[in-house]
Write a structure and sequence with these properties.
The chain has 20 helices and four strands. By secondary structure, the protein is mostly helical. Helix 2 runs parallel beside helix 5, helix 5 packs across helix 10 and helix 19 packs across helix 20. The protein starts with 5 loop residues before the first helix and ends in a 5-residue tail after the last helix.
């Protein structure tokens, strides 16, 4: 067997650096854990693929990889656009500036197609389900019409009935592209099934489930992360994902393949320079517009700073920093470990000042609610996470809305906070 190539070691080092920054709470870098985590992990995956089959996306398929990274961005932004209506997830502890958040979002979303397709490629390289066959599917015009109808329904139904049809959104980029791919002669799952080949289908399904497990593991420990509020699936979660939600990842992998196959065929077709240019321009414009809406509506809290905490003026912040306490997380952990009196003595701040900031931080860090929402809860009579655990979500939502000057948290967010508080009665990531 071939040796693991150098980029595999680079991936391990990149992943390790990101993990260290997250665990050590390195200010600023702890908020972008997703980037070194996924790019480091993808480098390792690619190195394993190369070791197993002598060819990989970085070794022999770089042009394909570049296209994959680019088209991955509008691919995921389409689901973010759907989520503006569905509100099935929201982001917490987003970066403070819009331009930096845009850069990080693009880098993060560029990994979505590789995450889906690299895992499927590794499953293939491992030889699992090699040569799998199935009974050939007779793809008639009626079958294509049926697939197209499901495709249209997958786009329309989640928008028209978001509470009940939200799950159909994961087929929005599967059914219609598959019909187009088969008719255009591009790689197609329908064509595979028509020929009795189901190897690629199984690889994508298995790879998608594998990818989903890694996705949610990385997200659970992240600082800037997403939290699900899927109607009817608020309980029985693994990490942040409802258990049933893991079934969506295999479908996402199928959609990733169908979508990318369509655009790869478009880019390879000769005599269509204008069409390709228009597609690229449309993708960039759509991504920019969706990001702006997402930044305003889906990102529910910003990365907390010491200066956001109650009672923290510039002198207090400087004193905490001088004592090696640069973030609200570090303040919260230090006070819990050493006690208020010790921290006050070390920083030269009054114990009452430290206590106010500590209590505010304890709420703000709970499920990523942020300092603004924590301040609203305090105005509504919730001083600690223990108070939150005793609250009725519906009544608390009404109280918070009554004291909010603008954009109160949604009822779904309040339910997330209360439910998490009831588990242990203390601040939870």
């Amino acid at each position: 067997m071939r040796k693991l190539p150098a980029w595999g070691l680079a991936g391990v080092l990149l992943f390790g650096a990101g993990l260290w920054a997250l665990a050590a709470d390195i200010e600023g870098w702890n908020a972008v854990w997703y980037i070194p985590a996924w790019y480091g992990y993808l480098l390792v995956l690619d190195a394993l693929i190369f070791r197993l089959q002598g060819r990989s996306f970085l070794a022999g398929r770089r042009a394909e990889l570049r296209r994959m990274l680019f088209w991955s961005v509008p691919f995921w932004f389409l689901f973010e656009a759907f989520n503006l209506r569905l509100q099935n997830w929201y982001y917490v502890f987003g970066l403070r500036t819009q331009w930096l958040s845009a850069i990080v979002s693009v880098l993060a979303f560029a990994t979505v197609l590789p995450v889906c397709l690299f895992h499927a490629e590794l499953v293939k390289a491992l030889g699992w389900w090699r040569g799998a066959r199935c009974r050939p599917l007779r793809v008639t015009g009626a079958v294509e019409l049926f697939c197209a109808a499901i495709g249209v329904l997958s786009v329309a139904a989640p928008l028209l009935a978001p509470r009940y049809a939200f799950g159909m959104v994961w087929g929005a980029l599967l059914w219609l592209p598959e019909v187009i791919n088969r008719r255009a002669g591009a790689p197609s799952l329908l064509a595979d099934l028509e020929a009795g080949r189901c190897e690629r289908l199984i690889h994508l399904l298995a790879g998608g489930l594998w990818a989903g497990a890694v996705w949610e593991t990385f997200n659970f420990w992240a600082r800037c992360k997403w939290i699900y509020t899927v109607p009817g699936f608020e309980h029985w979660k693994l990490f942040e994902m409802p258990l049933a939600g893991f079934l969506g990842f295999p479908i996402l992998a199928l959609s990733a393949f169908a979508y990318f196959s369509s655009f790869r065929h478009l880019l390879r077709s000769g005599g269509r320079v204008l069409a390709r240019s228009a597609a690229v321009a449309a993708a960039l414009l759509f991504s920019a517009m969706t990001f702006h809406a997402m930044f305003e509506r889906t990102v529910q809290s910003r990365r907390p700073l010491l200066s956001d905490l109650d009672g923290m003026d510039s002198r207090s912040v400087a004193a905490l920093r001088a004592a090696g306490i640069p973030t609200p997380e570090r303040l919260f952990r230090t006070v819990r470990r050493e006690g208020l009196a010790e921290v006050a003595g070390r920083t030269g701040l009054a114990p009452a000042v430290v206590e106010r900031a500590f209590r505010h931080a304890g709420l703000a860090l709970h499920k990523g609610m942020g300092t603004r929402a924590a301040a609203l809860l305090r105005r509504a009579g919730i001083a600690t996470v223990a108070d939150l655990a005793r609250a009725d979500p519906g009544l608390l939502f009404l109280r918070v809305r009554a004291v909010a000057d603008e954009k109160p948290p949604r009822l779904a967010e309040v339910k997330v906070w209360v439910r998490a508080a009831r588990v242990r009665g203390e601040t939870r990531r």
